[in-house]
Amino acid sequence: MLRLDRVSKTFRTGSFGGRELHAVREVGFEVAQGEVVSLIGESGSGKTTLGRMILRLAAVSEGSITLDGVDIARQKDYYRSVQGVFQDPFSSYNPIFKADRVLEMIRQRFFPSMGAADWRARVESSLAAVRLDPGGVLGKYPHQLSGGQLQRLLIARALLLDIRMLVADEIISMLDASTRIDVLNLLGELKGRGLGILFITHDLSLGNYVSEKTVVLRSGRVVEMGRTELVFGNPLHPYTRNLLGSVPRLHRRWSEEEDAPEEEATCFYHGAAGRDATWPGLVEAEPGHFVGCATSGTCAPALELVR
Amino acid sequence: MSVVPDEKAAVATTGVRAEALHFALRNGKLLAGLTVLVVLLVLGLFGPMVAAADPNAYVGPQFAPPSGEHWFGTTIFGQDIFTQFIHGLRATFLVGLLGGGIAAVIGMAIGFTAGYRGGIVDEILNMLTNIVLVLPALAVLLVINAYLGIRSIPVQAVFIGLTSWPWVARAIRAQTFSLRSREFVDLARLSGVRPWRIMTREIAPNMSSYLFMAFILLFGGSVLIGASLDFIGLGPTDSISLGLMLNNAARYNALHLGMWWWFIPPGLGITAVVGSLYVMNVGLDEVFNPKLREM
């Protein structure tokens, strides 16, 4: 459904755009209907920039993003199909207007001719879908509602449109533990309705909990991606291993982690694809599991190529 | 509050304004400031029609304190100070509104555009702003005056307006920059809202009391710049303003001669006009910002 093909983003910084900052480099993956893809990476890895490009809030520098084969930049009613929810629920609302204005803006743009009663019914059904009580949230100011309510109201806003794809950028990282799981389960329900969800997070366990596919991003590059159980069960990239190693697990003791073999001079990617393989790139380690070059100073071919 | 469900939709757009009005009419500061301002405005607008036509005519005894005949007394030359005051009030409002208005419009247009667009547009507008900012307004005025001459108060006001906008542009640009990166702006874009509406409906309302304050500062600044220009002889020579009255009083040593009636009315006039605007601004802050309304 939504497909990214060698997508790059370069920011121009400095006076008159003198310097370049590569935020995202040649990223490619696909989100299918009814599928949750988690995009995992540390701060500054480019995951939010990717989300913004998918939402057309930032222009794509190179490569293409397509929805059903058509470039998203050329789609007229793109936001009818693709919507987003952001990290900070309090900053997502204009503080001087009532919170339900976000719903009203959808009506003005997308349903200008819909009758008041029909609209009311539509609002109520999408509020019900996120388990919000209309009386509890409509007509209130953002500072009168809780973070969980605000975040669910934003999802309800997206559901007013018949969206097929939702970009959820760290949507639960500012919520407390009990509302967290509610919102997370809500994403599961949306998936059941056939929505494709791009779940952007820095939290591995959350990614594991909700997603079918996992994309691990580092410094703007995909280092490893594939079906979640493969990436989590058999991590091949040293960065992914490090990430997973830092999550305590029930079935393993920390002392066993020490037994991990020394990094080989050639990374998995260059071991499998040959020393002359172009870089960056990904190699299919097993069906549905792709790995990139380690490039952390341990991969000799990568170091040669840089030279 | 009972809102019929079917009316709910219409409420969202008109509701904001109706609600602002509701709080505005109950805000003491706003009403007090507005009352003083309206009284002075009416005095300045309609006073000159009733009073003598020429504020600089020598009509009375020289050096006379306030009396039934000359309400605010007379100057050292025998000019009626009340006549000068109401004519001066009109000129002061004109310089303040026109000068402050022009500067506010230019400053806001450039500030919003630069802050929202960013990139190369911002670089160019910022450069323009900085050039005007460092332009020695006084020197330029001397040159312009030598060639064209500033013959009337409107021309003076336009000149003040064209040179005093840069700090507003810079301040609004900075505010717009910080508001633009807030997620509600992204959300408005996801709702298909056009850039112009995002600026006017999402960003500007968040700084409406700031915008009003900028206008008040420009208004007060224009009045004072006008007074200083009059003082150094670069203003219109044959008219009167509150600033010119103050400067005349200073020039002819009214303070040393004990002629308090010469400088207190114009001084109080400027203070009342600018001060009432400030008080209104504090009141408006409470009207615009729902967080400040709650006790």
Description of the structure:
The complex is a heterodimer of chains A (307) and B (295). Chain A contains 13 helices and twelve strands. With 307 residues, chain A is α/β, with parallel strands linked by helices. Chain A has one domain (2-219): 3-Layer(aba) Sandwich (Rossmann fold). Chain A has an eight-stranded mixed sheet, with helices on both faces. Chain A has a four-stranded antiparallel sheet with strand order 2-1-4-5, with helices on one face. Chain B has 295 residues and is mainly alpha-helical. Chain B has a domain at 90-293: MetI-like (MetI-like fold, Orthogonal Bundle). Chain B is built from 13 helices and no strands. Chain B has helices at 8-24, 28-50, 81-117, 119-134, 137-147, 153-163, 166-180, 183-190, 195-203, 208-231, 242-251, 260-288, 290-293. Chain B starts with 7 loop residues before the first helix and ends with a helix. The chains are: A alpha/beta (307), B mainly alpha (295). Chains A and B meet through helix 3 and helix 4 of A and helix 1, helix 4 and helix 8 of B. Chain B: Keywords: Cell membrane, Membrane, Transmembrane, Transmembrane helix, Transport. Chain B: It is a multi-pass membrane protein. Chain B: This is Peptide/nickel transport system permease protein. Chain B: Residues 89-281 form the ABC transmembrane type-1 domain. Chain B: GO terms for molecular function: dipeptide transmembrane transporter activity.
